[in-house]
Amino acid sequence: xxxxxxxxxxxxxxxxxxxxxxxxxxxxxxxxxxxxxxxxxxxxxxxxxxxxxxxxxxxxxxxxxxxxxxxxxxxxxxxxxxxxxxxxxxxxxxxxxxxxxxxxxxxxxxxxxxxxxxxxxxxxxxxxxxxxxxxxxxxxxxxxxxxxxxxxxxxxxxxxxxxxxxxxx
Length: 169
Prior knowledge:
With about 170 residues, the chain is mainly alpha-helical. Helices cover about 75% and strands about 0% of the residues.
């Protein structure tokens, strides 16, 4: 194994640009070409490839190009390459942890269970059903003022129930 960094430096200086141009032509990807050249040079260093004289320089260059070509072929055949594809669109935003939302829903549901039925029914229809006071009044056969009053007192009781559970101030 060649442990002399000067050997790798010389190999890189003499062959990396031509090797990179070759890999760019094969892949069409400038960034991937840099990775392939780096991996090729690493393998050359591990194998002890040198180009001390003209004969060795020719065989070292051939070896480097062959290794680079094989790396490109291996990548093209890889499962990762078949499953991944480039895109100009950003991925969806990060999805946060839903644990807090589940606990909040459980607390609100528990607090709603403590309300008298006449208040709970109006609060649930207004906030979960997104119904207006007039729609709730029509559905329940009550005056709009009664629905507004029950909604007011229901929300007030709900706030107190949540305070008892340590949710709000």
